[in-house]
Amino acid sequence: MGFLSCRRESTGEWTPSLRKMSRRAIYSKRSTVVAATVENVGVMSGAIIYIQKDLQITEVQQEILVGSLSFVSILGSLAGGRTSDVLGRKWTIGLAAIIFQMGAAIMTCAPNFLLLMFGRLLAGVGIGFGVMIAPVYIAEISPTVSRGSLTSFPEICINIGILLGYVSNYAFSGLSKHLSWRVMLGVGILPSVFIGCALFVIPESPRWLVMQKRVDEARSVLLKVSDNAAEAEERLADIEEAAGTSNMEKHEEKVVWQELLHPSVALRRMMITGFGIQCFQQISGIDASVYYSPTIFRDAGIESDSKILAATVAVGFTKTMFILVAIVLIDRVGRRPLLYISTIGMTVCLFGLALSLALLAAELVSSKLGIMGAIFAVCGNVAFFSVGLGPICWVLSSEIFP
């Protein structure tokens, strides 16, 4: 178990430095779950260029290949909740990694569109498991005082994963059209292998252990991630109180569903806000900017595939950097002001992108000016998304519900 199992031999207690190291290890491994699965999103945006050339797929097939991931990941997310209750949070992370590895391997070796789609669907299920279990795991293992700041970690890791996908595309763009997209997709297997190795380091969720009547194991985990033994015992008592008996748990679950199906006025407002912001985050068109940025740049006039992929790296870098800006501003400026800035900025950038492409098509501006305008508009769109609508969607959803 490495340094996670190291204690001060004289007292049996954890030193502050070891305790901090163990926390960082747990959080970094958990973050890799999201980064690894979402890397496939960034990879596909560039790989689709070479897939179309190699397998001669139609535009409709491209759209199905790209869009199917979101639909299938929903199924993975829905199945992940019950699976994590049966197998545990830790091994559900492992299951997500295995399913994703299988899907990525099939896509890498696919000789035709049918097998490519099968691998894509399998990888989508793995991604659904991963993005569902990661926030649950971190919420159950992190101390209350730092839980809020860690809420934005999924969005950070999503951006890092997309950026790594863009960089991978650019790095392997010089290979043949038959080999390039296969290597791009195959590289995505490596982070999920790292997740598998991390399973031998990270502990199980203490809440799940308590639910399985394994209280001593839960106490041992809490000692690793708490500042002192007293805090660990306090957290354990809270978990035991929240978990309750099996009958009480079933009763509370029934009450929760009754409240959701027949909400009060206050809860209805919370649900409208929570569902609404999640919905608008997706229909803002950010996925189109990420997936189809190479196509946008080609329509703008960039002809070289390597230059197109270099431009997408700039998009990924911008998206990642501005999520860090959001982390700095979110507690200082507030949620609503950043949402206003984000949505207004995205609207202006998308309008500017449409205007640039329209002027290029009508030959009213030079090719160089149109290309610069398109790159600036796409980078601006993802930057404004990362400043507000991206991270605040997760933060607000976790803050408004009881």
TrEMBL record:
List the transmembrane segments: 64-81, 93-115, 121-138, 150-167, 179-202, 308-331, 337-362, 374-397
The subcellular localization recorded is: Membrane
Name of one Pfam family that matches:
Sugar_tr
Q: How does it sit in the membrane?
A: Multi-pass membrane protein
Q: Which GO terms describe its molecular function?
A: symporter activity
Domain (Major facilitator superfamily (MFS) profile): residue spans on this chain: 1-402
List the GO cellular component terms: membrane
| Keywords, sorted A to Z | Coiled coil, Membrane, Sugar transport, Symport, Transmembrane, Transmembrane helix, Transport
Keyword Transport listed: yes
Superkingdom of this protein's organism: Eukaryota
KW Disulfide bond (keyword) present:
no
What start-end ranges are recorded for coiled-coil regions in this protein?
215-249
> What PROSITE patterns does the record tag this protein with?
MFS, SUGAR_TRANSPORT_1, SUGAR_TRANSPORT_2
| Major location category of this protein | membrane
Write out the similarity annotation: Belongs to the major facilitator superfamily. Sugar transporter (TC 2.A.1.1) family.
Q: Which NCBIfam families match?
A: SP
Q: What is this protein called?
A: Major facilitator superfamily (MFS) profile domain-containing protein
What is the source species?
Answer: Dendrobium thyrsiflorum
